[in-house]
Specification:
- The structure is a single chain.
- The protein is mainly beta and 107 residues long.
- It has one domain (21-104).
- The protein is built from one helix and eight strands, in the order αββββββββ.
- It has a four-stranded antiparallel sheet with strand order 4-1-6-7, with no helix packed on it. A four-stranded antiparallel sheet has the order 3-2-5-8, with no helix packed on it.
- β6 (77-83) and β7 form a beta hairpin.
- The longest helix has 15 residues, at 2-16.
- The radius of gyration is 19 Å and the shape is elongated.
- It comes from Lentzea kristufekii.
- Residues 1-21 form the signal peptide.
- Keywords: Signal.
Amino acid sequence: MKTAALLMGLLLAGTTGCAVAPSIRVVVEGTGTADRLTYTFPGEEERTLRNPDLPFERMGKRKGRVVVRLEGVRGELTCKIIINGRQVRSSTSRTGAALSCDHSMAV
């Protein structure tokens, strides 16, 4: 009986001490175009693409702030931030306005 309790305690201690890295997806889709797409994942440098190929998708794995911005939007575009398969942010531009999605995760 004591052995079973000890094993259970060790199993619980081992599972609570590990932080699992999130699966982060940034997606831009729609029928429009953009002059510039800028994105940032936690722990990485900001990246800017001019006249990006759309649809666009990138993946990341660290907690922190995720940002995607589009400028010079023509037509309809939607940006999405998806964490562990769950969409946490979405924004659509139908007017040609700049477009952004931003989400912060506790580190």
